[in-house]
């Protein structure tokens, strides 16, 4: 039976598609305070500011194109004889644009959520405060993004994949945000081999058996070719 591969991706895989990362020089968290734009308290305090932040990212992500790293993962998911599960911390739709399926543990820019009734729908490019929920009509629409202090999505499903995989790969993440930063330990505990593909040393590099250092658009296609060809 072919190995089961679980892949975690972070903002670094989308950097070469023109989407900013969070903690690199001049990144999103250098331009905005997390507590103002990525917490429930920030949204309650100033929903217009939070919508402006996500509207700008949604518009940019809508016109962004997948890069060779996204394409390589879609190829791996299509051609690998075993199961390939992509878990992404990213809220852009670039894995899907490349033809891959991904589990979005931090939500998606393209999705809106009703804070009152839980209804989800395709977000308009630009959302505004007090927009009514199409289902319950209350003015409680919000970006379907997991903010700091909120529970990431699909954790039961993700845990089950980590405990049953043979190879765990981490691509383009700084390993500074949990629970994603702890996935390598869970997979290793369950007996998986691990590899990190990243531009630079991360907080969790020492937890990996193997490393490929460089831009994702180069190291990810090379790694996929090693596996498939
Ligand atoms: N190729 C590969 N890796 C890259 C590239 C690139 N071209 N450019 C940057 N990187 C790496 C950086 O070295 C860094 O380790 O990508 C990582 C980006 O780290 P972060 O900006 O911290 O992004 P991420 O790890 O995805 O953040 C995790 O934090 O703010 C929250 O919810 C947000 O999902 C996000 C989470």
Strand order of the largest sheet: 3-2-1-7-8-9
Give the uncertain stretches in residue-range form.
none
Q: Architecture of the largest domain in CATH?
A: 3-Layer(aba) Sandwich
Order of helices and strands: EHHHHHEHEEEEHEHEEH
Overall number of strands:
9
Walk me through the structure:
Helices cover 33% and strands 19% of the residues. The strands form two sheets. A six-stranded parallel β-sheet has the order 3-2-1-7-8-9, with helices on both faces. The protein has a three-stranded antiparallel β-sheet with strand order 5-4-6, with helices on one face. A hairpin with a 5-residue loop joins strand 4 (107-114) and strand 5. The protein has helices at residues 28-31, 34-37, 40-45, 47-63, 68-79, 94-97, 155-162, 183-189, 216-228, and strands at 5-9, 84-88, 103-104, 107-114, 120-122, 141-145, 167-171, 193-198, 210-213. It is of the alpha/beta class and 229 residues long. The longest helix has 17 residues, at 47-63. The protein starts with a strand and ends with a helix. Helix 5 (68-79) packs parallel to helix 9. The chain folds into two domains: 1-18 and 66-106 and 148-229, TPP-binding domain (Rossmann fold, 3-Layer(aba) Sandwich), CATH 3.40.50.1220; 20-63 and 107-145, SIR2/SIRT2 'Small Domain' (2-Layer Sandwich). The mean pLDDT is 97. The chain binds adenosine-5-diphosphoribose. The site of adenosine-5-diphosphoribose has 23 residues, from loops.
């Amino acid at each position: 039976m072919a190995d089961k591969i679980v892949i975690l991706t972070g903002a670094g895989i989308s950097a070469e598609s023109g989407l900013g990362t969070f903690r690199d020089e001049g990144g999103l968290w250098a331009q905005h305070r997390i507590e103002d734009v990525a917490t429930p308290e920030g949204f309650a305090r100033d929903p217009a500011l939070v919508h402006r932040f996500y509207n700008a990212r949604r518009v940019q992500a809508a016109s962004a194109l997948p890069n060779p790293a996204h394409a390589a993962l879609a190829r791996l998911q299509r051609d690998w004889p075993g199961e390939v599960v992509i878990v992404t911390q990213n809220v852009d739709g670039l894995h899907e644009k490349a033809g891959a399926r991904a589990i979005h543990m931090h939500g998606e820019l393209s999705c809106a959520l009703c804070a009152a009734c839980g209804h989800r729908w395709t977000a308009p490019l630009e959302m505004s405060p007090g927009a009514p929920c199409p289902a319950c009509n209350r003015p409680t629409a919000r970006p379907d993004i997991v903010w700091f202090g909120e529970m990431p999505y699909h954790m039961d499903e993700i845990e089950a994949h980590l405990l049953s995989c043979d190879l765990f790969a981490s691509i383009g993440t700084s390993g500074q945000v949990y629970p994603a930063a702890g996935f390598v330990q869970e997979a290793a505990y369950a007996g998986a081999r691990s590899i990190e593909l990243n531009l630079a040393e991360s907080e969790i590099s020492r937890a990996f058996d193997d490393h490929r250092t460089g831009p994702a658009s180069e190291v990810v296609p090379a790694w996929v070719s090693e596996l498939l060809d």
